């Protein structure tokens, strides 16, 4: 069975938040989880004009370290990410390499000049991590705005959606992983 690796790149979470993230992902993906730090050079992804990092480059660089195609890697960074044609992204995933990435930067209420809110911050992390991992398990975007696989254009969309898969996405995941319903 595919194993999920959460890799923190020059950032971390509080013990309690990490525990909740582990529990949540284990619950959604019924998979083994491994959490670690992964220090590798992401400087090549930095765009000085935008003061942002191009997610594609980080994913490609990380791929050089990934030997086992069965593994699903979710990188966690605390730098602002973008993708070609988009002002910013909360995360991105490449099912081919089995590597996804989420950024904590825009999940913090402080980013929107609001006061820090640990609970809200954690909720957003759970949602974005579940979303990008969903792509690694070949789930496409979902039309159901409450489903965690619905696309977030803004943090309002993220806050509106649930941290779990809808029944349809759950079914697709089970078929993909060969689990009988
Ligand atoms: Zn997506
Ligand atoms: Zn769905």
List the helices and strands and how they pair.
Elements lengths: L3 E5 L6 H15 L3 E5 L8 E2 L4 E3 H9 L8 E6 L3 E3 L2 E4 L1 E4 L4 E5 L14 H19 L18 H6 L6 H10 L5
Helix pairs in contact: 1-3
Name of the CATH homologous superfamily: Collagenase (Catalytic Domain)
Bound ions, cofactors and other small molecules, one mention each? zinc ion
What shape does the CA trace take?
Answer: globular
List unreliable stretches of 5+ residues: none
Distance between the termini: 17 Å
How many domain units? 1
Total strand segments: 9
State the major sheet. 5 strands, mixed
**Radius of gyration from CA coordinates:** 15 Å
**Helix content range:** 25-40%
- Element pattern in H and E: EHEEEHEEEEEHHH
Which structural class do you get from the secondary structure elements? alpha/beta
Approximately how much beta-strand content do the residues carry?
A: 15-25%
- Look at the structure and give the mean pLDDT: 95
Strand order of the largest sheet: 2-1-5-9-8
CATH overall fold name: Collagenase (Catalytic Domain)
Oligomeric nature of the chains: single chain
Explain the overall architecture.
This protein is an alpha/beta fold. The protein has a single domain, classed as Collagenase (Catalytic Domain), CATH 3.40.390.10. It is built from 5 helices and 9 strands. It has helices at residues 15-29, 55-63, 118-136, 155-160, 167-176, and strands at 4-8, 33-37, 46-47, 52-54, 72-77, 81-83, 86-89, 91-94, 99-103. The strands form 2 sheets. A 5-stranded mixed sheet has the order 2-1-5-9-8, with helices on both faces. The protein has a 4-stranded mixed sheet with strand order 3-4-6-7. α1 packs parallel to α3 (118-136). The longest helix is centred in the last third of the chain and has 19 residues, at 118-136. The two termini are 17 Å apart. The relative contact order is 0.14. The mean pLDDT is 95. It binds zinc ion (2 copies). The site of one zinc ion has 8 residues, from α5.
């Amino acid at each position: 069975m595919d194993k999920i690796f959460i890799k923190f790149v020059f950032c971390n979470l509080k013990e309690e938040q990490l525990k909740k993230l582990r529990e949540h992902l284990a619950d959604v993906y019924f998979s083994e989880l491994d959490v670690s730090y992964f220090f590798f050079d992401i400087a090549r992804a930095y765009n000085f004009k935008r003061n942002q990092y191009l997610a594609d480059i980080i994913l490609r660089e990380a791929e050089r370290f990934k030997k086992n195609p069965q593994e699903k890697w979710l990188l966690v960074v605390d730098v602002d990410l973008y993708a070609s044609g988009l002002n910013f992204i909360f995360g991105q995933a490449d099912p081919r390499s089995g590597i996804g990435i989420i950024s904590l930067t825009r999940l913090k209420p402080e980013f929107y000049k609001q006061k820090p809110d640990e609970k809200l911050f954690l909720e957003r992390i759970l949602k974005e991590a579940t979303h990008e991992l969903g792509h690694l398990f070949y789930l496409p975007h979902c039309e159901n705005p409450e489903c965690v696989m619905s696309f977030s254009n803004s943090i309002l969309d993220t806050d509106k959606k649930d941290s779990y898969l809808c029944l349809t996405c759950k079914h697709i995941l089970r078929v993909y992983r060969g689990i009988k319903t």
